[in-house]
Amino acid sequence: MTTTSIVTGGRQTRRFAPVGPRRHRGDRRHLGYTVVGILILAIMLFPVYWMVNASLQPSGNTLTGDFFPVNPSFAGYEKAIADQGGHLVTSLVISLGTVVLSLAIAAPAAYALAQFRFRWISIALLVILIAQMIPGIVIANALYSAYNDLGLLNSIPGLILADASHAIPFAILILRASMQTIPPSIVEAARVDGAGHVRAFVSIVLPVSRNVLITAGLFAFLFSWSDFLFALTLTTTEDVRPVTLGIYQYLGSQVSNWSAVMATAVLSSLPAILLLVIAQRFIAAGATGGAVK
């Protein structure tokens, strides 16, 4: 038991603060929560560990592989890069194109919905929400018919446009929530100095919205990088193959060499992991940017 001195009105009084069994019980409770959290995290990350472990097995068989790669082999990565390297580059080009197209459309649309006061804005938001809830297979089937007439099947621009149609509604919603917190006075000050609507948007609004732009761009990249449905529906030849479709087709021909399959999965996971690690502070700031006005 400890004592703390408190001075009130020139008099010093002592107050006893119990630091015995109660404090120890609190420490044990926190320790128990920590252990439970570590166990849950280990269970959730075990598939990732087994993916990396299987990619380093020299035999290529995950059933007879060791729990820990004592003698790691990079033959699976060599085969994966040789067979799937072009598909990884294709996915990277499509994902970066999706980010550029999504932000180019979503940023000005979100700013208009956030700052301008028109009666049709609520209807526009309802349409965006409905577009966000449409199943992907419905959009893919509709795009297949349109792409067949326009000659966009088996093309990178066609996949970029398809992935952007999925990313733009979500980007508009999170960008609008953040841009609603931008004080109109700073935009009006730029207008008074002679800047037009476009100049004020580019010079004032976009720099202020940097965090949420990075967040929206990252989600657009992840949507496109992990896309399988559009890639499967809108490609009929091997001219354009994203890595998700490459892994799907890889399973049928490489079932006896799982190290190459797992190596491809590891390589396809690296860009998303690196982006999340690098941009995590921007994501935290951008995700909560519109939470408080």
TrEMBL record:
It is a multi-pass membrane protein. It holds the Pfam family BPD_transp_1. One of its GO terms (cellular component) is plasma membrane. Belongs to the binding-protein-dependent transport system permease family. It comes from Plantibacter flavus. Keywords: Cell membrane, Membrane, Transmembrane, Transmembrane helix, Transport. It is found in: Cell membrane. InterPro entries: BP-dep_ABC_trans_perm, MetI-like, MetI-like_sf. Signal peptide: none annotated. Coiled coil: none annotated. The chain crosses the membrane at residues 31-52, 92-113, 120-144, 156-175, 212-235, 255-278. One of its GO terms (biological process) is transmembrane transport. This is Carbohydrate ABC transporter membrane protein 2 (CUT1 family).
